[in-house]
Amino acid sequence: MSKTAPGKIYLCGIMHQELIFFNTARYKLVLSIAIGLFLFLFLIAFLPFGVSNYDPNHTYTFEFLYEIAQYIPITILSSLINEFGIKSLFRGRLSYTFIIGWTIWSLIFLGLIIFITYNYQGDWHDWKLSSVFGFVFDVSKVLIFPLVGTFFYFRYKALQEKYDAFLTNIDSSIDDKQMILFTGQGTKDKISMMVVDFIYAKAQDNYIELHYLKNGQISRFLIRSSLASLYDSLDYDFLVRCHRSFIVNLYNVSSIKGGRNDLRITMSHADEMIPVSKTYVDATLEGLKKYKRFQ
Predict the structure, then answer these.
(1) What is the Cα–Cα distance from 141 to 195, expressed in whole angstroms?
(2) What are phi and psi of 48, to 5 degrees?
(3) Reading across the β-sheet that carries 198-204, which strands appear in turn?
């Protein structure tokens, strides 16, 4: 099995794994409600005491609150149309560049809807092209807070996603009798073993310590090599580099625990918990989902 094809999948498909929430229904719904409520709260707090209409004697009448409250359903509905309708036309787009562009579009779209609502309430008193740009810009300065706040809240929750699961192999996903050849720099730095016996490799200065089963017991074999060189020589996508010091055999992963920032792996027959660094967490999780069942 080659590591080349899965590598291409990784680059195209899970480079921004932590952004998957951006296209979920829950995110779209929460964002739309947050935008509507934030705009309402901002207007009732700022409008009577704004720079242009400061009134220290202002009282909050039912009529005033009712007029402002009309922005809640209009803004929420407009955001839902934008998120569930227009965004669906860009299905599959998931990158930071797209998110920035989409945020700018959302601010313009919602700003225009609010501008129309504002003029409708005021008998179209400011219905002229010269007013649009300034109005949309001012609205954008307000709505950027719920947009950015909701995004970073969901991103934080995605990064804090916790795993605490026992894993079993998917039937026939890996040929456990297949032989793996490990080769180092020395003439005697060679050893071969079956997939079922190899557990993990650990960097030890200029050497690699191979941990494997021999007659049912943990054995170790040292070869002179860097971990990067050894990994490049192993053409098996079930052997995953999860850390700058570790290569693990997914066949012998028994459980995982922690979040994306502190993920740890437990191997069959081994007591040492192996860390997964942020650099390799996406590739490691993708491999686990390919070859293991989560229980």
Answers:
(1) 58
(2) -70, -20
(3) 217-224, 207-214, 198-204, 246-249, 239-243
CA distances from 180 to 183, 233, 276, 290 (A): 10, 11, 23, 20
For residue 123, give Cα distances in angstroms to 6, 61, 155, 243: 60, 21, 42, 64
Q: Is 6 part of any domain?
A: no
Handedness of CA 214, 218, 219, 221 (dihedral sign): positive
pLDDT by residue (tens digit) across 13-34?
334 556 888 999 999 999 999 9
**Residue 275, CA distances (Å) to 1, 174, 212, 239, 259 in order:** 25, 23, 18, 15, 11
Task: Report the amino acid identity of residue 23.
Answer: N
User: Where are the extended beta strands (E) located within the chain?
Assistant: 162-169, 179-183, 190-194, 198-204, 207-214, 217-224, 239-243, 246-249, 253-259, 264-267, 273-275, 292-294
For residue 179, give the CATH number of its domain. Answer: 2.40.50.1020
Could you give the CA distance from residue 222 to residue 193 in angstroms, rounded to a whole number?
Answer: 14
107 within a domain of the structure (yes/no): yes
Which SS3 state, helix, strand or coil, does residue 278 take?
A: coil
Matching residue, tokens 């740009």: 133
Number of domains the chain contains:
2
Domain that holds residue 205: 163-294
Cα separation, 233 vs 140, whole angstroms: 53
Q: CB atoms < 10 A from the CB of 238, how many?
A: 25
pLDDT of 244-286, one tens digit each? 999 999 999 999 988 888 899 999 988 889 999 999 998 999 9
Whole-number pLDDT of residue 54: 54
E-assigned strand segments in 205-245: 207-214, 217-224, 239-243
pLDDT tens-digit readout, 182-222: 999 988 889 999 999 999 999 998 999 999 999 889 999 99
